[in-house]
Design goal:
143 residues, alpha+beta, two-stranded antiparallel ribbon, 4 helices, 6 strands, globular
Length: 143
């Protein structure tokens, strides 16, 4: 009998601001592991329940993770299942584009690189070895 760990709180993190967090997919769990093991990450949190909501034309985007780099830059990361990342003009793509625009506008208003946003598909998260590799994939495939 297979045991599901979906929505089961998991602890033991080093950089997470929560004692334990739960996940909805293997990709989210792997992203948390990559965030937690990166020396570039000062802290991270699982945005569940959502503390951060980015307004978009298709409703709020509630990123899966929020983090701060050791450089002071903050980021939001959305892990998306392939089945939800359908064609141009789909709600997930509209939300992603709006979140990118929000980060750019926030950086202009604050006068510096204060925020970054990335969306990655679960298959890319599962194939990444480091958080830095995951950021590179996001920049190349989902600008």
């Amino acid at each position: 009998m297979a045991v599901s760990l979906r929505r089961v709180p998991i602890g033991g993190w080093h950089r997470c601001v929560h004692v334990a967090v739960s996940f909805e997919s293997a990709g989210e769990f792997k992203a948390a592991c990559l965030l937690d093991s990166s020396s570039a990450i000062e802290w991270w949190l699982r945005n569940d329940p959502p503390l951060m909501k980015i307004p978009t034309p298709s409703g709020n985007l509630e990123p899966d993770f929020v983090y701060q780099l050791t450089t002071g830059t903050r980021g939001a990361l959305e892990v998306k299942g392939e089945v939800f990342w359908d064609g141009q003009g789909s709600v997930p793509r509209i939300k992603s584009a709006a979140a990118c625009a929000w980060a750019a506008a926030t950086n202009i208003a604050s006068g510096g690189p204060g925020w970054e946003f990335a969306v990655v598909l679960e298959q890319d998260v599962l194939s990444a070895s480091t958080f830095e590799e995951l950021r590179q994939i996001a920049q190349e495939k989902y600008p």
